[in-house]
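= Tokenised fold =
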Amino acid sequence: MATLTLLLVIIVLALIFDYINGFHDAANAIATIVATKVLTPFQAVVWAAFFNFLAYWVFGFGVADTVAKTANTMEINLIVILAGVIAAIIWNLFTWWFGIPSSSSHTLIGGFAGAAIAHAGFNVVNWYKEGKAGEMPTGVLVIVGFIVLAPFIGAIVSYFISIWLLHSSKKSIWPKLFTTLLIIATIWLVYDQMLFYNEIKKPRFESHFLSVMFESHNIKWLLIAFIVLSISFFCLIFSSLNQTQSTAWLRKMQLLSSASFSLGHGGNDSQKVMGIIAAAVVVYIHTSGVDMSGLPSWLHVALPAKGPNGEEIAGHMPPWIPLACYSAIAAGTLSGGWKIVKTMGSKITKVTPFEGVTAETAGALTLYFTEHLKIPVSTTHTITGSIIGSGLTKGVSAVKWGVTIKLIWAWVLTIPVSALLAALIYYLLSAVIH
């Protein structure tokens, strides 16, 4: 099979995986908002799909770069990537059919790594690489570590947001004082992290104000500020509301929290497919021996790298790749995934608008944090941990641990099973494709 044809097959299958990822993981973003009956299932998937696609204008390509460098692209071929994508599709459909909320992210990385090992041995995989000054290390082991850390962070953040809200419902000055201090700290932190016009490498507009406001780095921090300040405002008035009024406020706030989580889902998960497509194009350029100048502009892809003198060389990705990936995941989300909605929305713990707001807010903040660190994490693991953290405020018995342990087993098995499946598919494809 001609290498260009193989590349096109990989791109199509990667976008199919992205579509499947959308309906497989739709439950992550809509389960709580459907369980609390804030929106109907149809309204919820439209809402989530819209914010999945909106993430195109919010997030950069840090996670995509991490995924693209799962294996050394100079030592693999296109069959490796094809086998990894096919294995990821098979595992995703298998877990979706049985209603298991496994990680689409980890099955993709596990498949990519497993096929690469089958092709060139363990050393071809980037297991661990020290980060630059002030940055996190990268590699498959870091991703594996966040199988535990992402749900744990989500659970801790969700638990503390829940405690904050519960104390704010009481007529006491201390919760209001804490909330006021948090508002001041949030404004200071976001202002400190903002990039101003003279710090932006490629301003999008001539207007200084618009360039600063719509810089993707700044949008993420402004979103974090908006989320924290919105909850803070509610906490300041919570004690003055009766139960009916507070429930009405929480139901409205769930629209904000689910939108925030859907943004994080779109930005985190679409980037993984962008990374796979980028890696495939780089491998195609390397294995075909064609100079990039002789390729059509839609294939002009370069991963970030270091120059001969150690200088940083920025990567490049043509606009069609992120646009196609965000469109595919949004379309998949529109298709829904009702089997998994039931598990996420009711089988882990009973979900009310209170738990919905705290879990989705914690999940969104965790996803923004890990995306900022360029670490691909599982949105499934993150929201599950957040739902558990929220449920723990009602006591350990409020969490249905039997269901939770089954989910954990699915998480633990995803990477090794995907890797083994991809290795088998690689050997089969190698025997067929010449």
